[in-house]
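Let us practice reading a record.
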Amino acid sequence: MKRAVPVLLLVAAAMLAASPFLIDAAPPEATMGLVQKIFYVHLPSAMIFMVSSIICGVASAIYLMGGRSPKADRVSVAAAELAIVFGLIMLVTGPLWGRKAWGVWWVWDARLTSSLVMWLLYWSFTLLRRFGGPGSETLSAGVGLFGMALVPFVYWSVNVWRTLHPMTSVVPRLPASMGIPLWWDVVAFMCLFAALFALRTRVEKLRTDLDAALADADV
């Protein structure tokens, strides 16, 4: 995986550099106009946020049920931190879009509120790992599981409750002129996520190895 990281970063950089030209060529949405083009960043970041949440939850489950695996623990830590990063992009671009399109920065509907709660959960995960002391690995794994359990709720909430947020059926109905730049950005964000995830997992392994070496040196 270490050899793939530079390739993934180069692919992500090249695709993201080309992305503004594809977005500019896409037609503006009929009712929302130019501001709708934030969608090409907002949706990919939201997708990566959910992917990170699922990876963190699965790794947390493996850690709890698989004999406290150090590898699963490292994966959950890396995924939680990336959920914070991409969740922040989602939460910033969403209100920027909403303010121009619907006249409000924020509404406390099911999709927005549950997304914010899920994002705050990963902050709780990270703070537990940083300041929780002994046993924080187990507690944070429980938080990771809860975060993953929210993913289907966040996804389906717009289909169940009336909300300003578009329903999930919007994306499959996009014309090719909008769908191509959207999926281009999704692939670019996925490549960036994969590279950052591999790097962050590697850093976490080096950190735990260093802590173990220092502990042995103190004995």
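A brief commentary: DSSP finds six helices and no strands in the chain.
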